[in-house]
Specification:
Chain lengths: 222, 222, 222, 222, 222, 222, 222, 222
């Protein structure tokens, strides 16, 4: 690899070597960027025939982006956008994405959108939190047959430990900012997941559906 | 009980077994849900003739919900909504709900609304914080004659300890986010209550009037 | 009640009215007190024929206390001591004390010791944490038949939510300092329990087996 | 005042102007200093006929210090030492020092020792915490007749608010590190006191009996 | 005093005994209250010929309040309102109010407004923070001649320590939320003030100009 | 699976179903347990011909354990013990374990010991932290050829991000408690890793070499 | 220097001695000030022929300020304004300003604007974070040839350590609030930078481009 | 530079390129290392004729190290050791090291020891904290004539701001863990320094005398 493998457009040094180095092209983190910056970076990536994936793209920004890229694919709940997605063959195995509650669904949608762009089959199971644990048991076969499992939960995040204690596959836990008061915007769920009494759990940042999908996709492609 | 006792409507797996298992039907936490989601879940519960209780329902959402359920009962201060409330016989005993200040009243209203839906008599006593402790002593008989007591306080939350030291009934303390600066949005009141020098106090999440009512109702129905 | 109902021994104003006011005599918190101070206060309580209960009494202190009170009853794991325990009739119902792991047993022992002194029957169930959740289901009848349930757990504290979602009795959760790193000496378990997605949970201070027993006893005696 | 008003002994620049500037001579904070350093600084102060006051002096250190100053006055509970104390006339008014519990007494002793060295009459009232609030009411006259009141409490620190709501004198609150778990070594009591619903409270650092005495003495000498 | 000395208007139990007990009538904390609630409580206080003082009254609320009380005195920067202020004789001594910067002035205005209502002369000195410490020395005589000093500072709050090291009067420090990033909305200034190396400092809650004025007024009236 | 698949020895309910459910037998967390408890639980596992793995076993405890199990395999740096390890065929692929510094080696040893017991080949690379980043590049081939990578770092934990940006395999980051002051016993490294700008990183608890090995082994066995 | 070297305009005591004492005139921190206050203070500085520099000036405020000073120089991204900038000779050496990502550019712009006003040459290098570390190596010569280096990064802030390990010049690290969840608004990047394993790093407040420029300018002018 | 420029001794990859890259050889952080590890790494550095500097070396470890290197230079207060120090010419300018109190001296000693090994003249000024600010003014010329200033302070750390407001040289602030209660082991001083109202301050980790010396030395050698 060469130190020259990027394109400098002043506001960014677009890394065009990343797909070779990391398996996927550079993903655009949309939150701190203007619509114009997202468009500029996308153009560079497209000029090299890379798939574009941008996360945390608000509805305000996408309306600007549509003007530049009318064929952009956007999911409002996931807040994700893609361009130039390739029809590569997906592995037969799938990633299970499991949420504790209805309010955790947007994070699951982000994970599912990204996992799809990264070339994975996905099975989503919503609202099986431990307040009604029989709902989880009803879905356990689908979870157990996945190659890797993403568990998404806010509040006390107990679902991650419970799932992890029932499977023999790697579990990636995503704490969400769902809750109030001492949920501390997701810190409580995060701490809970890091201290799981069940073994084999690893954790990503709060509301980081993208990161979980990236990690899970790497595992699913092994 | 069976793992099949829920109704899957994609965005939620509505737990229709909960009244058998936990004594009350599933309660809808309104904060992270859209008005449409609340309506959908309510319809499922009503289809099984369950009482619907939704908390943290904003005025924006209720105006949508009224279109679907014109007979919804809504309390603006409590931010709670109910449907299909049953006229079950209440226990003779009552729950005392005590607040330290005027600003804590909305949390008390949530607790009172929920306790009523759960089938309890309630006595509310507002603004008896320790800055003028003689106000508390004037109301002590009503508090002592309750079967269980909910104390709601923000700032330093001292009222919970003081009440607990004066009664022989279980006291459930609810810290509120009333205050500023080092009140830390209710963390200070919570910590204070967890460290009460008076014995017999238990604590719920900040501003969690619903949870306190749920716990108190269980005790009141023993 | 009178403002004179205490005995002043300089280092303490022993509250001899507490059993009338709160249902139980004053309990001695042993941690910040010398053996001599515990002995002095005990003598005052005994002079009024009160039952003495002291918590957090180390083995060093008890060896001193035995010299003054050879018939003191002491449990090394519970770190609790009692004197002059009365043979009052206990309610038929019982308190279930449930722990997530083996390391949580000392806190359970404190809770059980205190609950016994307060005049309660107790059923203890150890090591049913969610890493092997079938162990919990095997014990569920014993838990469900209790009048009130104490759940004791460290690490992520998920057991409290799971138990609470399966019963129709009040659940008192006790976070423990079991764990390391981000368990934060029990803060994580505490936060987890305060944010339980299951309704009806209330929480006491970290490792506070005594407080949970006190609260549970009040409920059990209703 | 002159920039030259100190004596430089390398390890310290002893401030010999402080009694003129601040009303009292420099006080030695003993915790981070060796016995030798305390002795050296004391000698400088004595060479200018200043009263020496050292706080947080452990028993190990005082045994060294006694060799240099056999007439040092030391209080083991207060962990304070004084030398060359002057018989100045004290104001007729007094400082009330009130503790919530027995375990808070060492901090009260530090406050009382310092207040005495600063030339004040003191009334100490121990163990009147809100778990048995009638004990406080029995002592209220002594508290109300003070010119300034120091309230010392750990755990939830509620006593400070309660006292403050009952008097028309300035109240200085001292949080103590008494407690466990979420008492956070005194942080909880501190936060509680800073958020008192009663007006007129000011707060010093955790376990800072000295600072409270210093502040109270200034007020008592007005 | 009697437990009956309050007027119950449901949303509040207005404490009409407070001026006798604490030296000043009940002050209305405006932040958590509606304009209507402030008006209702004010009417009760006025019916007993009490002076009304309300803090943290926004401009939106005052425009409502003016309709009920056209002669209300309101200071926009201080966000304080008073009614029925009495012309009592003020002590000859004064309170010095000192700020570190221009941005701290609103808190100083709150303190000054309240101190005036409580019957005190006040001297305000703005913008003498330690970045240009010669400005402080130029004003030192005014500060030293006060009976009690309020120091108001955000950011690192160093001014409080510096002033305290230069005077022989009690210093009340008010941390402000001025700053960004690690100023943590005033927590840093608060911690700094609690750990002052200069003796005799006491501290109130962040931005609590009212509390500082209340405490200072008590001292000034001794 | 059956709810009966555990053996109850009072202090523990040993989960003998775990290898079927999770791929590995129950692992003993040694920190909160006495040597006797570890021995008792080991005996139960051995009676079912399970491999025993115990982590966080101090040297004091192992000397007791050796009496019961003279053939116990113990690694002093790793603080891990195993019994009855099976000679199962390992996958050809390997786990790379990379540390930032020399002080992180004990956590790496725990990870390596556990990974070996779980049936994995391991390559360890120590002391390639970013202060001398050329050391990392010299070892990059070994890291890139692994199937999964564990990065162990204290202080600022930057190595995890740097490695993750250079590979196309899943990276599990283990923060360590190496550092002082604001390293906050590993919290800083943990936060750093959770916020990696490189994608595909997941994180376990501080100093949790075992958990990282467990997760990596699951991936390596896919 | 004299204690009289300031101009008192009530809302501020403008320090006109600062350029002599600190090397640069007083800089106006715009965030807590109104447009009017900024204008007033600017007029005083201009009356003494000082250069005016104001930071954190929003677009709303600048439109007011333009009315008073039509020739004000304003950079929208940097949120900085200057007046009466002098054409002093700059040192030949330059300050390198390096950012990890595109979202960190506004802080870099603040640093660059201020460094320029302070009389420095600046080289800006954007978006060389460790997710694509070859971009950094491509720019290393420019960084190494600087006299002092400012590294600006959010998220995990790893770039600061990496740069610091590659150069022999002082590195000033600026954490930014870029990130989400456990980035804690920049606290994580700050902690990371304070614990750098590379030596020679010093740190300023979150998003404090101004402070870094000030410090760097002092070094560049040595 | 080459990726091969280190010597691999298994427990460490000793960086022998660091003096060329960073200006000084690799420094050994002694805290997490055994005496044997320190000796091994020292031998490698000596084999390349590098100066050895090890920090945070306890007295227990040095007694072992003396056996291997009888001519090791060790300062007990500084806890630092050096070997093979070179007599290079020092710059004429000097570094001023200033402490707030006597208890901060050990950190100053570490800074002075390291600065000397790095080839710098140093002037130390102890105990000039703001409680007696005239002591600082008496030493101001020595401070102002330095090329770079290190300010070391615990408690509220106000000295750093005051010094910084009085000089036109870069100031590096070192918070110390001196204090108790809310000093939070140095966090308070750190936060205070990061929020200095005086410009031009940069900060290093708590008690990090070494880091401050390293940074100051780089500046002093410019």
């Amino acid at each position: 690899m060469s130190n020259k493998d990027f394109i400098d457009i002043d506001i960014a040094k677009v890394d065009i070597q990343r797909s070779e180095r990391n398996g996927y092209p550079e993903v655009i983190y949309g939150e701190g960027k203007t619509a114009d910056q997202i468009i500029e970076i996308s153009k560079v990536l497209l000029s090299k025939d890379k798939t574009v994936l941008a996360t945390r793209v608000s509805e305000e920004k996408i309306s600007e982006i549509y003007k530049a890229f009318p064929d952009a694919v956007y999911d409002k709940e996931a807040r994700c956008m893609s361009l130039n997605k390739k029809d590569t063959k997906k592995p037969d195995s799938y990633i299970a994405i499991v949420t504790a509650g209805t309010s955790d669904i947007p994070v699951a949608k982000e994970a599912a959108f990204c996992a799809d762009v990264f070339g994975n089959n996905v099975e989503c199971i919503y609202d099986v939190g431990v307040a009604g644990i029989h709902r989880l048991f009803a879905c356990l076969d689908t979870i157990r047959n996945a190659k890797v499992i993403i568990v998404i939960a806010g509040m006390e995040g107990a679902l991650a430990s419970v799932v992890c204690g029932l499977v023999d596959k790697p579990v990636i836990a995503v704490p969400t900012s769902v809750g109030y008061g001492t949920s501390l915007n997701g810190i409580t769920a995060l701490l809970s997941m890091l201290n799981s009494c069940a073994s084999g759990l690893s954790v990503v940042n709060i509301d980081n559906g993208f990161g979980a999908a990236y990690n899970a996709s790497m595992i699913n492609h092994l």
